[in-house]
Amino acid sequence: MCRAELSGFDEVMNHGMPAYQRDGVAEIAFASQKQYISFHLLRSDVRAAFAERLTGHDAGKGCLRFRKVESIDFDLLRDLLEETATTRGEAC
Q1: By CB neighbour count within 10 A (0-12 exposed, 13-18 middle, 19+ buried), where does 46 fall?
Q2: 67, 64, 61: which is closest to 34 by C-alpha?
Q3: In the chain, where does DSSP find H-type helix?
Q4: pTM of the entire predicted model
């Protein structure tokens, strides 16, 4: 999904995680942790734009955590990726 939505981004390893960067700055990353899968959204402007849809999800300052694969909201993730790809903003 990342490859399809993040055209023009480079796929790299960043802090031990697969990440997608544009102009040398990582904007998306993900990781498989012991208790959950984490999706790191490193753009605060995109998080703010999706604040209502992120309500109710297990979310930290810059990541979404999914404890079971079945709980992953792929529609939300696709929309976050699309917004990241089509807008420019500062990554944290």
Answers
A1: buried
A2: 67
A3: 2-5, 44-49, 51-54, 74-86
A4: 0.91
For 16, 34, 76, 86, the CA distances from 82, given in Å and listed in that order, are 24, 28, 10, 6
- Counting DSSP H helices and E strands in the chain, the numbers are 4, 6
Structure-block tokens of residue 68: 């079971």
Report the C-alpha gap between 38 and 67 in whole angstroms: 9
Domains of the chain: 2-86 (3.90.1150.200)
Write out the chain's pLDDT in tens, 92 residues: 999 999 999 999 999 999 999 999 999 999 998 899 999 999 999 999 999 999 999 988 889 999 998 989 999 999 999 999 999 988 87
What is the rounded distance in angstroms from the CA atom of residue 42 to the CA atom of residue 34? 21
